[in-house]
Amino acid sequence: MTTSLLITEISVQSWTYILVGITFALYIGIAIWSRASSTKEFYVAGGGVSPLANGMATAADWMSAASFISMAGIISFAGYDGAVYLMGWTGGYVLLALLLAPYLRKFGKFTVPDFIGDRYYSKTARIVAVFCALIVSFTYVAGQMRGVGIVFSRFLEVEINTGVIIGMIIVLFYAVLGGMKGITYTQVAQYCVLIFAFMVPAIFISIQMTGNPIPQFGFGGQLADGSGTYLLDKLDGLSTDLGFAEYTKGSKSLVDVFAITFALMVGTAGLPHVIVRFFTVKRVRDARKSAGIALLLIVILYSTAPAVAVFARTNMIETVSNQPYANVPEWFKKWETTGLITFRDKNNDGIIQYVANETINELVIDRDIMVLANPEIAKLPNWVIALVAAGGLAAALSTAAGLLLVISASVSHDLIKKIINPKISDKGELVAARLSAVGAVCVAGYFGINPPGFVAAVVALAFGLAAASFFPAIVLGIFYKRMNKEGAISGMIAGIVLMLFYMTKFKFNWFGGGTKADWWFGISPEGFGTIAMLFNFIVSFIVMKFTKAPPKDVQEIVENIRIPSGVGEAVNH
């Protein structure tokens, strides 16, 4: 038997065990090699990470399960409307890199609550910031653990809940052992895995459908069947035939599109697990370099996602719509067992009716499966299908690890070290950080098993919470020396409370619930972070006007962090 024939005959499940096993062994090996021996190594990797490594780690930290698994899935179902996620998340990273990262690095703190506690010279400000960091991080990590569960449930054929538990154990090992030092170098490996896993099937399918090996050009090109039809025109036709809106036309209101995009942008600039990455480099100029490198690496995936969405949607409709259920391919049955595809034969004719009309429609597809199922639908080799599974896990676990570190640092450094027990030893603080990470993993696992929605929707809510709480406090802390502790504290509390109220009212039906028709100003919960952020700014300025100015030394610190200091060295306090 030839080697190529043997490779072809290996099952998807076997390939998944092989590739996931190799990548997990790599992550654990790196964690053991780079285990943290001090709190500085645990929190900021010793502050000596190179710009290239930090750029790769930041890209992996940033490109979560929402980016890898769910974003293309959202675009494939929402079409033009899904572009808000592309614009918001990409634009937000530019905002973070240019507006905040260098200044925060120069301030030289371990965590965002550390920055807020010192800048606003207040233990209360630090406690409020810790609370906000925990709310944002737990909401975000719920989406990551859900992504892990989806991958495991399909490719290793276990329950989603079992998949979440396996992911918890893996991430616990290298996050608790290695801290930020272990996470950084693990994320470098995870970036390589996830980008390779995302691009390989995209290139394969682009060639298969359009003859163009570059997906970004393929999805806007003509079909390879010689018909002269453009791929997007074909998808528009397929969509309208089934009663859906044209794929290339939007249905969201302009105000909601703006609100979601802006909330995702400013939410990015307030995400504690992304911001902390800029504290791991030696110099301020290294923070700028690593931000630029990360942006280039992120663009590779983000510019490919719309193409993957079009390929997946077109193939899905052609494969299952109006087909006899008895003839559906094996991948359909496999995904059915996970509960992420459900078929209910309402008219008992044995034909799958996939249409926009809910009373007639018989097929429900979870949008989170589109990227993962895409290679199977396109009948790509088994090793490519398994590679996508390994990439999805890399994306989810890399971000989960960064979030768990933020949670553990917020508890051990910002609460225990700075407020409860300032005399705690370095060793004691390290033990507290690791115990906090264990507790955080358990809570994250619970949210992964009981998520409030599909992956990208959960993550979008986390961005709204970050926009509502951190963004104004950080921006005003850097650029407005008159902003005082009373204003910042009041603004953060007002912003996060308003966002939590709106989110729970319309997502969980608390406080009387409500429908789309009841949205305030016509803005969805995913976009309401923009309104809550503006409310934060307004409350901050009003309270500031009626309270005394910050001390002179604090105002001098604010002046100093905005002055290029030649050597650009950060002073670590």
Protein described:
The protein is mainly alpha-helical and 573 residues long. The protein has a single domain, classed as Up-down Bundle (Sodium/glucose cotransporter), CATH 1.20.1730. It is built from 22 helices and two strands. It has a two-stranded antiparallel ribbon with strand order 1-2. Helix 4 packs across helix 17. The radius of gyration is 24 Å and the shape is globular.
Name some characteristics of this structure.
573 residues, mainly alpha, Sodium/glucose cotransporter, disordered C terminus
The poorly predicted ranges are 1-6, 566-573
Helix fraction by DSSP (H/I, runs of at least 4) = over 70%
Q: Strand fraction band? A: under 5%
Overall shape:
globular
The major beta sheet can be summarized as: 2 strands, antiparallel
Which secondary-structure class do the elements indicate? mainly alpha
Strand order of the largest sheet: 1-2
**Total number of domains:** 1
CATH topology: Sodium/glucose cotransporter
Average pLDDT: 83
What count of helical segments does DSSP give?
Answer: 22
CATH architecture: Up-down Bundle
Brief summary:
The protein is an all-alpha fold and 573 residues long. It has helices at 3-9, 12-33, 39-44, 51-62, 65-78, 83-107, 112-119, 123-155, 160-210, 215-218, 231-241, 254-268, 272-275, 284-320, 330-338, 370-377, 382-420, 426-449, 455-479, 485-507, 529-545, 552-561, and strands at 341-343, 363-365. It has a single domain, classed as Sodium/glucose cotransporter, CATH 1.20.1730.
